């Protein structure tokens, strides 16, 4: 295979381009080995020997195959992988190695893939696989672990024993291993709590993760862990950089232990398998923990007594603290923002009494308050564990102080004292859109004309953020709970803690910290951290479909279909007119509903280039011009229950790239 040629598949057209070996070094007729690209998500390279699996590369992780050791951040990958789940296509191509004009990939008659390059005099081997007996597919059977550095090479995973001791002693490991202690979670699969209390995970490092994986739509290792823990059928999980969360619900096949590199794998075991080897260690550890706990409780009590005696606000401290914060902010950055004394806000909210709590924001609770002059305010109290530190706090102040638009919430000021940070906003009597939209009674208050006005208002606010304000701002967390409503039901976009500014003609940026709300994130942002105006457009599309249906994306399930799939099918069958909340049928304008459904589908297109920009979006909503036809969104194919126990490889027809689901 020469540079720029590729192996690929095209499922709808029934095409599968593979690299086939010669029968022998002197016989160019087709041999028994072939190299192909699998339709799993993410995909992986696979060498077959006839119909049997011979070697696999492990799943693709942006710039590398995770199952090939020795590929670190310094490795210049000659591979290019492109996969379109919605279209059922993918390709794997090879480019020339840097500094070498002559190179090629070959599959030998012995079943080895090799990359060779020419230094001007000789052909040099750059890469070869498989190189070890552990690289051969499933060498140690199900739940077996092939260790490259030991002899014999096969052992059982922790908590497992050989299925056949006799075969294992003879060096025949293909039957694999079985669990030594049954999982409590499986004894009562209806009780997740019971499983959480008894089962746990054993963490392995430097591992080539097993085959038969599934991609789960979770953006953090903690979410990956919690989901697997709460799912009794989840055997193991791995959070891999460049991929995200992979889970295994069946046997673990083709697991390899490397000396270095590799990934981390967490294996589900019964609590007894995870217990310490010595009862004395447990007793000593427990005693030490209790002692530390008692000391901490006593210290906390003494500190509380000290603070109680000094509960009166100290004006000198307040002024000093706020002066320090003011010095950290450029004067032009906080024009029009007032600094409120902390005791003023405490008095206004009755010391943050629970009766004044309006709701829970992304970074802390929000309270209603009344100032001495009778003015009503909303106070966002940033909790120390919320994740919004000084950077996000300052970001929100600087941003909102510069933004003035009727469809954006107005920031009145802030208050800072030590670790306590407060943002003071204008109070909006009707709270947030989700309060009305997802309530069986209150949803009748916002009939279709009001909903259509809300949709247009949000779009106008977005246009101001993206195009018309002094700063170009990408919100990054646009959702129904961040749309507030005033007394006239005029929508106002709120919560700018995660927003980012662009300078000049800049239109795209990348972040290593992917933040936001699952279900509303654009695919390119969730996968790669790249965000732009089109990221907010995707979120708007999800929000638009929620407003039309009155259903929350994270809770919607119609015969196993997601909200996005349901919307697409409705569009294909009736142009979306039946998608509107039936309680509003008498107030609707079918043409407007159909148009909004079509716009919503255009906004959630997989490719950012297929989505409208904000100016086009507002034009679509305020005129009757012709609209382009939407393509099928990528988040519409789902796993069917009747196929979940299949032993076949997962294909694009069984698994969607549904990486975005609401919490």
TrEMBL record:
Subcellular locations according to the entry: Cell membrane
Pfam families: DUF3403, PAN_2, PK_Tyr_Ser-Thr, S_locus_glycop
Keyword Cell inner membrane included in the entry's annotation: no
Apple domain boundaries: 185-271
Gene3D superfamilies for the chain: Phosphorylase Kinase, domain 1 (3.30.200.20), Transferase(Phosphotransferase) domain 1 (1.10.510.10)
Transmembrane segments: 282-301
Membrane topology: Single-pass type I membrane protein
Domain of life: Eukaryota
Coiled coil stretches, renumbered: none
Keywords from the named record: ATP-binding, Cell membrane, Disulfide bond, Kinase, Membrane, Nucleotide-binding, Serine/threonine-protein kinase, Signal, Transferase, Transmembrane, Transmembrane helix
Name of the protein: G-type lectin S-receptor-like serine/threonine-protein kinase At1g61390
């Amino acid at each position: 295979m020469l540079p720029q040629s590729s192996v690929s598949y095209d499922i709808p057209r029934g095409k599968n381009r593979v690299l086939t070996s010669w029968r022998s070094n002197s016989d160019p007729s087709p041999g028994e080995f072939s190299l192909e690209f699998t339709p799993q998500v993410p995909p992986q390279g696979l060498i077959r020997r006839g119909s049997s699996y011979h070697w696999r590369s492990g799943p693709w992780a942006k710039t590398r195959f995770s199952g090939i050791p020795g590929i670190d951040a310094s490795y210049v990958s000659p591979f290019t992988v492109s996969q379109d789940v919605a279209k059922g296509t993918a390709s794997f191509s090879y480019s020339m190695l840097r500094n070498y004009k002559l190179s090629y990939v070959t599959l030998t008659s012995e079943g080895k893939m090799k990359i060779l390059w020419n230094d001007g005099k000789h052909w040099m081997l750059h890469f070869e696989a498989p190189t070890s007996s552990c690289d051969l597919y499933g060498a140690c059977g199900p739940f077996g672990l092939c260790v490259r550095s030991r002899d014999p090479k096969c052992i059982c995973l922790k908590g497992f024993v050989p299925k056949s001791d006799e075969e294992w002693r003879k060096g025949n490991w293909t039957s694999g291993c079985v669990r030594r202690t049954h999982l409590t979670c499986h004894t009562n699969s209806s009780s997740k709590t019971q499983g959480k209390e008894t089962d746990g995970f054993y963490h392995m490092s430097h591992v080539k993760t097993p085959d038969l994986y599934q991609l789960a739509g979770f953006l953090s290792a903690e979410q990956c862990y919690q989901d697997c823990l709460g799912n009794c059928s989840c055997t193991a999980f791995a959070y891999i950089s460049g991929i995200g969360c992979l889970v295994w619900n069946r046997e673990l096949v083709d697991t390899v232990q490397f000396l270095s590199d590799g990934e981390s794998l967490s294996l589900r075991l019964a609590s007894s398998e995870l217990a310490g080897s010595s009862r004395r260690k447990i007793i000593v550890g427990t005693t030490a923990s209790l002692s530390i706990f008692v000391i901490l409780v006593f210290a906390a009590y003494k500190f509380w007594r000290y603070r109680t005696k000094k509960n009166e606000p100290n004006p000198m401290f307040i002024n000093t603290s706020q002066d320090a914060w003011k010095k950290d902010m450029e004067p032009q950055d906080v024009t029009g923002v007032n600094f409120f004394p902390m005791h003023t806000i405490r008095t206004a909210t009755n010391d943050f009494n629970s009766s004044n709590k309006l709701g829970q924001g992304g970074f802390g609770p929000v309270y209603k308050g009344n100032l001495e002059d009778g003015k009503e305010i909303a106070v966002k109290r940033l909790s120390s564990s919320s994740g919004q530190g000084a950077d996000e706090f300052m970001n929100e102040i600087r941003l909102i102080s510069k933004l003035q638009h009727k469809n954006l919430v107005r920031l009145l000021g802030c208050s800072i004292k030590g670790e306590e940070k407060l943002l003071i906003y204008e109070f909006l009597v009707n709270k947030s859109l989700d309060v009305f939209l997802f309530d069986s009674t209150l949803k009748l208050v916002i009939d279709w004309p009001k909903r259509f006005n809300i949709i247009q208002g949000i779009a106008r606010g977005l246009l101001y953020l993206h195009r018309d304000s002094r700063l170009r701002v990408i919100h990054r967390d646009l959702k129904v709970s961040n749309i507030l409503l005033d007394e006239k039901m005029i929508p106002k976009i709120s919560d700018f803690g995660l927003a980012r500014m662009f300078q000049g003609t800049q239109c795209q940026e990348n972040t290593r910290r992917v933040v936001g709300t699952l279900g509303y994130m654009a695919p390119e942002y969730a996968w790669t951290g790249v965000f732009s105006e089109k990221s907010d457009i995707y979120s708007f599309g999800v929000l638009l479909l929620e407003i039309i249906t009155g259903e929350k994306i994270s809770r919607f399930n119609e015969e196993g279909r997601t909200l996005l799939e349901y919307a697409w099918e409705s569009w294909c069958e009736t142009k979306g007119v039946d998608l509107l909340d039936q309680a509003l049928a008498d107030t609707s304008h079918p043409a407007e509903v159909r148009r909004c459904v079509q716009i919503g589908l255009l906004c959630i297109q997989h490719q950012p280039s297929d989505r409208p920009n904000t100016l086009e979006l507002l034009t679509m909503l305020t005129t009757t011009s012709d609209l382009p036809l939407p393509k099928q969104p990528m988040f519409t194919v789902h796993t069917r229950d009747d196929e979940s126990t299949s032993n076949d490889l997962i294909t694009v027809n069984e698994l969607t790239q549904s990486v975005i689901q609401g919490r």
